[in-house]
Amino acid sequence: MKPILEVNAMNVTFKVGPPYRRQDLQAVAGISFDVRAGETFALVGESGSGKTTLARAINGLQRITSGEVIFEGKRIDGLGRSAMRPIRRHMSMMFQDPVGSLSPRMTVGDLVTEPFRIHRVEADLAAETQRLLALVGLPLEFASRYPHQLSGGQARRVGVARSIALNPRLIIADEPTAGLDVSVQGEVLNLLNDLRDRLGLAMIIITHNLHVVFHVADRMSVMYLGRFVESGSTQDIFDAPMHPYTAALLSASPEPRPDRKSARISLPAEVPSLLDRPNGCEFHTRCPWARARCAADAPTIEGTSRRVSCFYPLERGVLRATQEHAK
To answer: Sheet harboring 91-94: ordered strands across?
Structure first.
């Protein structure tokens, strides 16, 4: 099956600093991946790793420095605002703040049907309001409410309804469970899974919450300092992480089974600045398994279905062995 979205060698660089000493800050560095129809792809990493910048660049909200973005066989990077308008009918974005992304002056009914007005799509707005609220599990009476009258979970459902209003082919969801109670997070994730299956959507989920990834994603990529360090099927990566950074992230994730003992892999030192990237492997300053070569040479991400950027990828079971050793 041909991918609905292809990102090839994307770079996003910002000019920062005072006018007399401008520096290049590379927020996204050589990223490549694809997403297929009906698939959920997750972007994982710490805050500041470049996930949101990558998502905004895909959607045309951030200009890319080099590389290409291909959506449904058409290259879309570099298109102007007017040329991107029809593309955005089929590539929808859910922003991180569920309440802040909704206009406080508009009712829920107006919010969920706003895409029809923006894109000048003729429709029975009353019927569409009823359809969209039903799809996300909200009663029709919510149509007359304002954002300040909604809980975080209800506001997120309204955001989901807006994002699917025009039957898009791809949804990019930036931290869809941020700020929500655990029980509400589960409801939102189940909703996204259900809509993906019912509508045949492709989804990109941006998150640092690994439980979210395991619950919804078919494939995932782990970002560090704007680069992918590991990519593959979600199940394979959770079962046997190959990059030390991935293993550390997984070891830090709370274990829902109390009877299963685990120990955290401690990463020394702070995250390096994007303005002062380490030589060699950029993770070597924090890696418990770093060797001399790691400080001198930079690895490339290699592989096919399972890709890892590491000279000495971890062997299967190393995370478990490390945890046993740490007891």
So the answer is: 91-94, 170-174, 202-207, 40-44, 219-224, 227-233, 307-308, 302-303
- 160 found inside a domain: yes
Domain that holds residue 164: 5-239
Tokens for 200, please give them: 């045949």
Average pLDDT over residues 188-212: 87
In a domain? residue 49: yes
pTM: 0.88
Q: What's the pLDDT score for residue 105?
A: 94
CA distances from 129 to 170, 171, 199 (A): 21, 20, 17
State the amino acid at position 318 in one-letter form.
V
DSSP letter for each residue of 26-60: EEEEEEEEEE-TT-EEEEE--TTSSHHHHHHHHTT
Could you read off the pLDDT of 231-263 as tens digits, one per residue? 999 999 999 999 999 999 988 776 655 555 556
Residue 285 placed within a domain: no
Query: How many separate domains does the chain show?
Result: 1
Q: What's 183's domain CATH number?
A: 3.40.50.300
